[in-house]
Design goal:
- Keywords: Heme, Iron, Metal-binding, Monooxygenase, Oxidoreductase.
- Its cofactor is heme.
- Strands 1-2-7-4 form a four-stranded mixed β-sheet, with helices on both faces. Strands 3-11-8 form a three-stranded antiparallel β-sheet.
- The chain is 56% helix and 9% strand.
- It is globular and about 85 Å long.
- It contains 24 helices and eleven strands.
- By secondary structure, it is α+β, with helices and mostly antiparallel strands.
- Strand 5 and strand 6 form a beta hairpin.
- The protein binds protoporphyrin IX containing FE (HEM).
């Protein structure tokens, strides 16, 4: 036995290790350049042989630049990892997202601190059933019934808060939007008014952030599910996620008690919690269990708060960088609505086409979502003339597809006018994805974003602080376009230095 160990150890002499590593590297390169089915697909040498370039971009949070740079260099399909291609052509993206055959990547299913749910499942049948249950709850028609709750937790709360600090210097809009979107989904999903924006109580926001981190960690590193992580290394993450789950469970109990006390069973609260409890799959007549309702509510919070608040933050930033559009949007709002009026979604959609166009242009130019990873189905697929066999995967690049010059003239310019009276163009923005797993929360997000923008422009004049690092006059030497604040990707594309870059001076509307 001892001699066996000794001879094994002797293999690890520096020379042998060097030869082993060299042979492995040679094989990787030889395979990538001459044998891989992706060898004729455009892409850089390093991306062909290693996942490292993409990994570095992920870790640095520079995914957007990475995708756009390679898209500009290599075109609509390129190798982004040894067994993965990036898909950037809008039609290819729509084809892939249009079918359950391109299943979500295994990473989604690695997450197991919550039950299988509409977002993370790779099982088309579960996804379809859940979408039949929750889809109608989040439809534009049904959200109308919840609009008062949305406006109370959202724009009304924000306008009231800003009203108290207006004309007193600059404020950071990033955190206010973040807390406001938590409050909206929290109020709808947990059944009682969340007011973290006003009270400053960030506990739920903190638990949501921590659950997000846990989700991300489990997705990319399944080892995070092992005992040492659960009990020691990531113990506090698990504890915070559990607090959120407990909050959801308590909300259901409280709702049951409330309904038992209520004499009139038809007078149920109009919110997501109640609608999820009552939701029924019209095909199987199956309703969700208590823990499924909790899980789907939490998924809504995770998927819907940062995405909406960051879109709002980018839109305000883009408007401040383009004062002509800010002025036009402000005038449009004030030409129609009195100062103290709370503008509803329907009113905004009817009367504020330019502001709505600004929102869609922000969604296109600064999508908060980026790569949607999918598996290539059996039989493979042909993309831009390249055959990609099964066993490989692809990533739909929303960032690149939204910049396709085939679809968008001057793609890097902020041109809201392109969406005026053009509903077809709005559908070509891929930020909410498209097809079978299109974002079911998009109507809620659009309602939150548009009503918030309309109501703040109606109540306040917005101006860049004097000491702002960014402004309309600071333009890129090559493109002549305003330089935008830096971003960072941690699942969603967020301003990198919100305390420094997301400030605005607000004053109350005079006229
Ligand atoms: C600006 C705001 C939002 C953006 C940009 C956005 C974007 C997206 C995208 C790109 C996907 C597809 C993800 C994938 O395929 O991996 C998605 C899925 C999803 N979103 Fe959103 N979303 C937003 C707001 C919301 C809101 C407010 C909710 C819920 C209340 C929500 C709930 C969901 C759910 C449940 C899914 C999973 C759908 C499925 O896999 O079938 N999202 N969203």
């Amino acid at each position: 036995m001892a001699s066996l160990v000794a001879s094994l150890l002797s293999l690890f002499k520096p020379f042998n290790v060097f030869c082993g590593v060299g042979a492995y590297a040679f094989w990787k390169i030889f395979h990538a350049l001459y044998l891989s089915p992706l060898r004729n697909v455009p892409g850089s040498f390093w991306m062909r042989i290693s996942k490292l370039p993409m990994f570095i971009a992920d870790v640095r949070g520079t995914e957007r630049d990475f995708m756009l740079r390679n898209y500009e260099r290599y075109g609509s399909v390129f190798v982004m990892e040894p067994r993965k291609v990036a898909v950037c052509d809008p039609d290819d993206c729509a084809m892939i997202l249009g079918s359950h055959a391109f299943a979500k990547d295994q990473k989604y299913a690695n997450v197991d601190f919550i039950e299988p749910n509409v977002f993370l499942t790779r099982d088309p049948e579960l996804n379809k059933q859940r979408r039949r249950q929750i889809g109608p709850v989040l439809s534009a028609k049904n959200l109308k019934k919840m609009e008062d709750t949305i406006l109370d937790a959202g724009p009304r709360q924000l306008v009231a808060k800003w009203g108290q600090v207006a004309d007193q210097g600059k404020i950071c809009y990033y955190y206010d939007f973040m807390l406001m979107t938590f409050d909206i989904i929290g109020s709808l999903g947990f059944g009682h008014a969340q007011r973290s924006l006003t009270t400053g109580d960030r506990r739920i926001a903190h638990w949501v952030k921590r659950s997000f981190m846990l989700l991300f960690l489990q997705a990319i590193a399944p080892i995070a599910k092992s005992w040492p992580f659960k009990r020691v290394l990531a113990k506090s993450l698990y504890a915070d996620a559990n607090k959120l789950i407990e909050l959801g469970s308590r909300a259901i109990e409280q709702r049951r008690e409330l309904l038992l006390k209520e004499a009139d069973a038809n007078n149920k609260p109009a919110d997501i919690l109640q609608a999820f409890i009552d939701a029924e799959d019209p095909e199987s007549r199956i309703q969700m269990t208590k823990s499924q309702v909790v899980t789907e509510t939490i998924i809504g919070l995770l998927a819907g708060s940062d995405t909406s608040s960051n879109t709002l933050a980018w839109t305000v930033h883009l408007l401040l960088m383009h004062p002509q559009h800010l002025e036009r949007a402000t005038k449009e709002v004030r030409a129609v609505f009195a100062r103290d009026h709370t503008i509803t979604y329907e009113e905004a959609q009817e009367s504020l086409p330019f502001l709505e166009a600004c929102m869609f242009e922000s969604l296109r130019l600064r999508p908060v979502t980026s790569n949607l990873p999918r598996c290539i189905p059996r039989g493979g697929v042909v993309l831009q003339g390249h055959f990609i066999p099964d066993g490989h995967s692809c990533s739909v690049s929303i960032v690149a597809a939204n910049m396709s010059s085939r679809v968008w003239a001057h793609p890097y310019k902020y041109l809201p006018e392109r969406f005026l009276n053009n509903n077809i163009r709005k559908k070509r923005v891929l930020t909410f994805s498209t097809g079978v797993r299109v974002c079911p929360g998009r109507h809620l997000a659009l309602m939150e974003i548009l009503t918030t923008l309309a109501n703040i422009l109606n109540a306040f004049d917005l101006k860049l602080p004097e000491d702002s690092l960014f402004g309309p006059e600071r333009v890129d030497k090559q493109t002549g376009l305003p330089v935008l604040m830096p971003y960072s990707y941690a699942i969603t594309c967020a301003p990198r230095f919100p305390d420094r870059d997301c400030n605005v001076v607000i004053s109350k509307r005079k006229d």
